Structure formats: structure tokens, C-alpha cells
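Researcher: I'd like a candidate sequence for this fold, 413 residues long. If you have to choose between options at a position, lean toward the conservative one.
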């Protein structure tokens, strides 16, 4: 994807600013770089180093701050589940810019001031809940700031306040949808749209949520290190492409091994540079999220660059008997087998000197379970030249999550 002159100018300005801010994190990274030497996209790719999650962890707690402490109005943090947490400082401008992007997401989804937005992601250090709320308030809609969990109260407020929009992880959206169905309260639900983020989700899950609740679903994108959710969303045309707001971020898609740009349309690792972020600007941050550019113009007419839905994460990849397996790998197989639901799990073990993968999948009532298991094994063999063990269960038997769902559990040492 071609970098614009405006983006180049903003990047040069950002590098000059962080070189002068006195923070050792940026001083070291850019000590041999003169911003004026970055005249082209090729110069940028050659001169500007990558930034990784480990770099940010090493800067804990406030080593990323590129402004004086009195200009920091808020911090957010990653969960730290895979290592030391990352703390990201925000200036007032950063907070305002994030709200602006999030309000833009709502507008692209056709949400207006007349809507009532029920927000179920978590508040606090995590960027989710407060981002959804800030965008809602910027738009001027009514926020219903529920936060996570307490499904009983979620459903009560959803009915009593006649929420028209639900914001959630796909896992929790599915849990709520199934509860609406089981309780027979669909006639009391006024939802029209769902804004879903934080984890990848497959076609079967999307269709199940959409069909139970009778709503339009939108896939929002973002990450703590780069503002949070709200840096991109798919549009009202309901095409698969997610528009990324290139007036705030420059996006590259790179080969995870070589770090070189992939051809347009090929899958690679999303790498982000913040163009105007003050508190903790990032340059060529490797997200581990995998996607591809969509080069065709969007029928909605917007010119923001588009990427495919997130296909997985490079660090979610597991290798089984020489095969690279992602959650999307399993989704591709089960969606080809009639009667399967959206829910699945996979467990990988090392048994008697060999790798063994067991796939657990839910099926609809009345479906022949033995035939389904054979079908999944057949498609796995055809597509990936391996045959997992398959255990088929009824809908609702696999555990549901109020947050993100861990799809693949690797129990090997």
C-alpha cells in the first residue's frame, strides 16, 4: 500500500519530536536517523526500525512517555498474560483523537444520536470499555456502560432500556444471543446492530449471532498499544474489508519472517505507525495480527485502506505433525461440514512419542455425530494431510466465555 506525502510528513515530524523529547527509549532507537533523510516510503522502510511487544515490555512502567508527565492524563495497559504488561500513556489529544476515531466507527456502522449503546467489554486498565463509551459520547448517543459479566442484569437492562446496539467480544455476544434464544425473550429485544471486537471470529459464529438476534454485525479493530479498539471497522455495505483510518495510522502488511512487504492481497503481519499520537508514539509496531490488503475500491465510496478480517495471530500458530494450524484452519474445516455449530476447541498433546490433536465441535440437534466426526477428519486429511481425533457434542456443551475464548490449547512441553 502506497504511503502518501502527508503520511511521510507526519512521520518525519513525529521522529523529530521524539528525538528531542529526551526519552532514552526513543533517543536510542533514532540516534542514527535524520528525519530529513526519510524522503520516500523506501527510505522509511530502510531506516526506521521495527518495534515489538518486548521492546514495550522492557520500557515498563512509563518508559514510553514522549511528553512531560504533567501532560499525561491517562494510562492504559495490556493484560500482561503473556509477559510483563505494557503501560501506554495518553495525552488529552490522544484521548480526544481516539474518541474521534471511535465515533467515526459508529457513524460508519450507521449508528446515530438516537441509538442506545450497551457496552459490555471491561473498563479499567483495559482499553475496551472506556473506548466504546468515549466514542458513544462523542457521537452523542446514549451509553449504557454495563461492563463485563452479570448476564442476568445485562439482559434486564437490554430489555428495560431498549438497547439498539450491543458492543461485545464475539464470545460474549454469542453467550447473550443464546440466552435470549433459550429464554424466549427475542420479542422484547430491540437490538439492531452489534459492534464486535477483541478476538477473531469465524463465519459460523457471525451467522449464529446475527440470526438469533436479527441484527447487523460490524467487526471493529484495534489494540492497546495503538489507542485501543476503534482504529478501523467494516462499513455499512457489509463487505468483509475493515477500513483503517490512515489519517491517524500508517499500516504495512509484512512477511512475518523477512519483515519485507508482501504483495497486495497476500496475507502478512499488520505493522502500525502512529502518525499523530503524543503520549507514546509507535513506529513500525509489529502487532502479530495476520491480514491482507484489499485493493479493490469499496462500494461505500470511502478511500480509507482496507484489510481483510483478522485471520489469526502469528503467535497463535501451532505446528502439529509438520502442519501449521491456526484457529482459522479449524474454522475452515468445520464450516464445510453440514450441521456443525460455530463453537469448537482443539487440544494438542504429546502422547506415546507423537503429537495428537483432538478437535471438539458442537452440532445441532438430530445431526449424526459419527458422520460429522468422519466428515471433519476427511476434510482435515484432504486440506492438511493429517487426521485429528474428533469429539462431537451438542450445542451449549462447550464452555462459553464472557471475555475472549481460547480456541487452541497446546499441552505439549
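Model: Candidate sequence:
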Amino acid at each position: 500500500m502506497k504511503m502518501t506525502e502527508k503520511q511521510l510528513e507526519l512521520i518525519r515530524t513525529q521522529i523529530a519530536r521524539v528525538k528531542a523529547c529526551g526519552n532514552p527509549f526513543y533517543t536510542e532507537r533514532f540516534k542514527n536517523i535524520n528525519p530529513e533523510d526519510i524522503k520516500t516510503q523506501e527510505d522509511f522502510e530502510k531506516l526506521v526500525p521495527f518495534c515489538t511487544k518486548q521492546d514495550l515490555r522492557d520500557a515498563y512502567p512509563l518508559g514510553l512517555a514522549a511528553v512531560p508527565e504533567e501532560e499525561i492524563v491517562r494510562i492504559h495497559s495490556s493484560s500482561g498474560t503473556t509477559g510483563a504488561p505494557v503501560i501506554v500513556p495518553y495525552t488529552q489529544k490522544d484521548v480526544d483523537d481516539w474518541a474521534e476515531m471511535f465515533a467515526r466507527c459508529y457513524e460508519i456502522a450507521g449508528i446515530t444520536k438516537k441509538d442506545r449503546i450497551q457496552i459490555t467489554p471491561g473498563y479499567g486498565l483495559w482499553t475496551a470499555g472506556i473506548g466504546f463509551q468515549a466514542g458513544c459520547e462523542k457521537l452523542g448517543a446514549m451509553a449504557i456502560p454495563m461492563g463485563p459479566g452479570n448476564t442476568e442484569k445485562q439482559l434486564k437492562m437490554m430489555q428495560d432500556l431498549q438497547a439498539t446496539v450491543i458492543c461485545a467480544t464475539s464470545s460474549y455476544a454469542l453467550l447473550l444471543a443464546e440466552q435470549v434464544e433459550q429464554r424466549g425473550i427475542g420479542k422484547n429485544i430491540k437490538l439492531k446492530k452489534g459492534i464486535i471486537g477483541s478476538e477473531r471470529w469465524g463465519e459460523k459464529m457471525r451467522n449464529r449471532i446475527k440470526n438469533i438476534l436479527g441484527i447487523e454485525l460490524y467487526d471493529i479493530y484495534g489494540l492497546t498499544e495503538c489507542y485501543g479498539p476503534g482504529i478501523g471497522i467494516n462499513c455499512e455495505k457489509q463487505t468483509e474489508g475493515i477500513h483503517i483510518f490512515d489519517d491517524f495510522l500508517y499500516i504495512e502488511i509484512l512477511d512475518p519472517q523477512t519483515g519485507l512487504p508482501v504483495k497486495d492481497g497476500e496475507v502478512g503481519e499488520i505493522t502500525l505507525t502512529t502518525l499523530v499520537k503524543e503520549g507514546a508514539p509507535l513506529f513500525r509496531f509489529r502487532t502479530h495480527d495476520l491480514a491482507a490488503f484489499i485493493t479493490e475500491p469499496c462500494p461505500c465510496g470511502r478511500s480509507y485502506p482496507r484489510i481483510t478480517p483478522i485471520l489469526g495471530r502469528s503467535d497463535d500458530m501451532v505446528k502439529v505433525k509438520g502442519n501449521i494450524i491456526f484457529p482459522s484452519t479449524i474454522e475452515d474445516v468445520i464450516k464445510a461440514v453440514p450441521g456443525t455449530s460455530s463453537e469448537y476447541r482443539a487440544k494438542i498433546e504429546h502422547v506415546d512419542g507423537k503429537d495428537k490433536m483432538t478437535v471438539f465441535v458442537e452440532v445441532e440437534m438430530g445431526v449424526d455425530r459419527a458422520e460429522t466426526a468422519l466428515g471433519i477428519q476427511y476434510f482435515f486429511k484432504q486440506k492438511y494431510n493429517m487426521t485429528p481425533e474428533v469429539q462431537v457434542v451438542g450445542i451449549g456443551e462447550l464452555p462459553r466465555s464472557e471475555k475472549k475464548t481460547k480456541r487452541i490449547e497446546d499441552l505439549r512441553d
